[in-house]
Each structure stands twice: as C-alpha cells, then as structure tokens.
C-alpha cells in the first residue's frame, strides 16, 4: 500500500515491490512458523476499506493496512517448510496471508486443506472459505428462510451473492437478483438458477423493477450494495421481512453518503435488519461445510470464479470490484502448484 487512500481505491494506490536481497526459503528452527508459497489470493471489497485511514467505525471491523507494507487477505498456499508439527512440506493450506509470493504465516491463522475433497484449490478463497461462510451465515443465521418465501439479492452474480441465490433456491424460495450488466443478469438466469434478474444500471426506477419482480413484496433481502437500492427495497418489503446487511459497497468510498428516505418502513413493517461480519460466525464453519459439501459433490451448487494470473495484476483485479469488472468471485493466481 503506497499510502492511505482517499475516495475510491485506484490501481496506483498499490505498488509492486521486488525484494532486492536474496531470502532463504527456510523457517528458523524453534520459531514455530510455517513458510508457504502463495498460489491464490482472494479479492474482497472490505480490503478497499482497509486501504483507508482507520476511523473508529472501521476499527470496529478490523485494523487498516499499513502504508509501505503489503496488504493482506485470505489465500491458498502450499507449505514449503514448517516448524509446526501440524503442517508438513507439501500440504495445502488456506487462511490469512500477505499479498506476496512467499509468506511466513502464523499456523493459528491457516487451515489445512483436505485434498480428498475434489474441488479446485481456488475454491478455498470463495465457496469453501470466508465468502461461503458469509453467504451461509448471512442467509441462514440472520434471515431464517422458509420454503416459498421471496428473496432478493443485490450484487447477485458476485462472490457472495451467487451463493445466497443458490442457497435460497435449495430452500425452495423464489429468488430474484440484481446485477450491473446484461451479461451478469443472464448468468443469474441461465447458469445460477435465479427465478428472475434485472440489470440495475438499465432500470433507474428501482422501485418499479422490484414491484415487477415482487408483486406481493419481499420476505428476505440480502443486502450487498446499500444506498438507493436499499431505499427502494424498504418500500417493497413485506411485514416481518428480514434484511441481512452483508455489505454496502455503493457507499464505502463516497464523500457524502446517500440519505435514505424510507427507513421508517423498518418500523411500519416490523422489519428485522441486522449487520454482521463473517468472522463472528467461525464456530458455524463445520456446520457450513456439512451443508455445502454434499451439494457441491452432487453438482447442485456451482461457483463462478474470475481468475486473473500474476500478482502484478492484483491491483487491477482488486480495484475492479469497485466498478463491477469482476464476473463471479475475483481471484488472483500468483503461482501454479
Ligand atoms: P462481489 O464479487 O459481489 O464484487 C463486488 C460487486 O459489487 C461488483 O462486481 C459490482 O457488481 C458491485 N458493485 C460495485 N460497486 C457498486 C455500486 N456502486 N453499486 C452497486 N453495486 C456495486 O463482492 P463480494 O461478493 O465479495 O462482496 C459483496 C458484498 O458483501 C460487499 O458489499 C462486501 O463488502 C460484502 N461482504 C461482507 C462480508 C461480511 O462479513 N459482512 C464478507 C464478504 C463480503 P455489479 O456489476 O453487479 O454492480
């Protein structure tokens, strides 16, 4: 990170640093450390927030990145050397790593990957990692969905949204998604099994679009974007509806945030609206895996990834989240196994 970011993150806010000294790829005996080669890195919208100067609000979520140091996030890596008995050379792990080719990691911050589960390793940045847990906890724990209910998902073709939509279909709900292009809306309808979808950039009257898709109203809204979309959704919620506030990506980097007109609907309709952070639900991780793995095996859950190659393309990929360039989960492939 070059320096704290003001406004929207740009590619130039990040710099590539090529180490000048030779580093031995070995851990110090007695250090308890694990040295890994990074294979895949996850791009997540919260990372843009952590590129900004910390504020009391953002510190409630996480510490900001440090200017002059590598940014960090979840990734998938291969163990090169280990001073921890739980990890051996050649193991694959996922967890928090710095954005770099090789990392020394704290063993407490990474999980061993079971290679007998036959999925691409990149999936541990998404469907089988924190993104999957986010969709699972935000939908099931916060919204308590019931068969036949109506569900609306914004940023629906993205990393989290595509899973929420599929979970809702598996529960027997009626599911509509919004996304920022025709290609993404087609993906929702033709590949991800949504019942309906609309491109919010072509339907500026969001209230009409929602009324068309939900003539009887929305039971559950999975919120990823905030702002005008949330305002329009509030008008279309049913009494006793639930809103899981996962993200508000349209608001993170604005100088002046949108002022909502329809918040009193929360009272009039007795709506439950709750924000959450995925890491609050780590204790649900085993239950989440028990739920998703059989569906993945049976081909009933699919996952769309957008993989760019090369750490040098990381800044472009990360910043692309904030203007909708990614189609599906944005991942960076740093190296091959
Ligand atoms: P996505 O894969 O959905 O990528 C971000 C997408 O957001 C873009 O592709 C774009 O899709 C959409 N977007 C960007 N800017 C805007 C805007 N101004 N208005 C509307 N949509 C916009 O990311 P994730 O699935 O990883 O994250 C989705 C949301 O969930 C984010 O808000 C994120 O912060 C939040 N999140 C929260 C977590 C938690 O623990 N609470 C954990 C993980 C994510 P489009 O082309 O459709 O506009």
TrEMBL record:
<dbReference type="InterPro" id="IPR011032">
    <property type="entry name" value="GroES-like_sf"/>
</dbReference>
<protein>
    <recommendedName>
        <fullName>Enoyl reductase (ER) domain-containing protein</fullName>
    </recommendedName>
</protein>
<dbReference type="InterPro" id="IPR045010">
    <property type="entry name" value="MDR_fam"/>
</dbReference>
<feature type="domain" description="Enoyl reductase (ER)">
    <location>
        <begin position="19"/>
        <end position="332"/>
    </location>
</feature>
<dbReference type="InterPro" id="IPR013149">
    <property type="entry name" value="ADH-like_C"/>
</dbReference>
<dbReference type="GO" id="GO:0032440">
    <property type="term" value="F:2-alkenal reductase [NAD(P)H] activity"/>
</dbReference>
<dbReference type="InterPro" id="IPR041694">
    <property type="entry name" value="ADH_N_2"/>
</dbReference>
<dbReference type="Pfam" id="PF16884">
    <property type="entry name" value="ADH_N_2"/>
</dbReference>
<keyword id="KW-0560">Oxidoreductase</keyword>
<dbReference type="GO" id="GO:0006979">
    <property type="term" value="P:response to oxidative stress"/>
</dbReference>
<dbReference type="InterPro" id="IPR036291">
    <property type="entry name" value="NAD(P)-bd_dom_sf"/>
</dbReference>
<dbReference type="InterPro" id="IPR020843">
    <property type="entry name" value="ER"/>
</dbReference>
<dbReference type="Pfam" id="PF00107">
    <property type="entry name" value="ADH_zinc_N"/>
</dbReference>
